[in-house]
Structures are given as structure tokens and as C-alpha cells.
Amino acid sequence: MPYNHSENTQRALSMFQKYDIDTQLALLWYGYLDIKDELNPGPPQAADRMAHTIYDEIKVLSQEEQVQAQRDILSGAESQFGRSYSALSNSARIEIWLLLGQGMESGEIINVPSDYKLPEQTHEFSDFISGLSFEERVEFMQAAVQGMGAASTKAQ
Asked: What Cα–Cα distance (Å) separates residue 149 from each residue in 2, 91, 111, 114?
């Protein structure tokens, strides 16, 4: 990792990474819902354009393909989206997940099914995250999304 994360962030990451990909996707969605209203976007950057390009490629896919693209990013698959994501800067990686969250809210991206229930084993993680400050929750989200992507092309 480019810098040392807090002990709480490291613990949250360790817990998060033990879950299957679909559970991780759901946890990212719920994490986005938790912090979105308090986020203050910075000025647009070149990284935003790259993230928007990938988002635009994902949103035109079928719903099944949209989910697969997100799974590929999360799992580090050697696929179009896994490699494209890996080539992004850390700020663009965060931006793509924010765009995906916004797309889920607007209906452009397939959402977590309304009747979806997180597995029982995520309760400890959810309780732990709930006890963190806003800044620590944001740090966790940043650390989680920065570590994703295809291994062969990860930006250093």
C-alpha cells in the first residue's frame, strides 16, 4: 500500500477482504449510502474523465454484464474492466465507485436487489464500521477501492 493505514482501517480491510465478491459489492453499496451525503467533491481533474469513460462503458452494458464488470474490478480479473481500473490513479478509482453508486441511485446501473440481506457473518463488520468516525469510514472506502483491479497492471 502507498501509505500506512490506521489500525481501524487495516482491521476493516482484513474483515472486508474475507467476504465473497458479491458480499463485498453489497458492502460497498451500503458504505456509499452511509457516506454520500457528507462527501464534498473536489474540483474536476483529468482522473475524473478517465473514470467517467469507464463508467460510460459499464452503464451501456446489460445488467448482468454491469454486475460482472464490477465483480471483475473487485476480484482483480484479467478482463477489460479489471485492467482498465488497474491503470487508474487512486483518485480515479474512488471516482469510478462514486459514479457507480450514483448510477445505482439513478437506475443507470443495476442496484442491489431490494430484498437482499447481508450474510450473518457481516454483522461484526457492519457493527465495527458503524463505530468508526466519518473520516475513518472514508479512509476505509478509499483503501478498499485502491487495492482492487487486475494484478498485472496495478498502478504503483
From this structure: 15, 14, 21, 27
